[in-house]
Amino acid sequence: EKLAKDLSSGFGGGMRIGETCGALCGAMMVMGIKNGKQHSDAAAQKAQTAAQAIYLGEQFKENMGTVSCHT
Description:
Layout: H1 2-7, H2 12-18, H3 22-38, H4 42-64
Helix pairs in contact: 3-4
């Protein structure tokens, strides 16, 4: 848990420069960790994660109106 907090500490405020939302990036990191544990095949893991990342990004943008963080 501490490692995850430390790793993501620069994500706030859109990577601290008002760009891609840190919450979205963090969610994608967690998704990658989860998918990596489900597949022994790296290509399958990469393909699944890519498809889910696209879907997550689209849903995030639909719900929030943007993937940029302006806080």
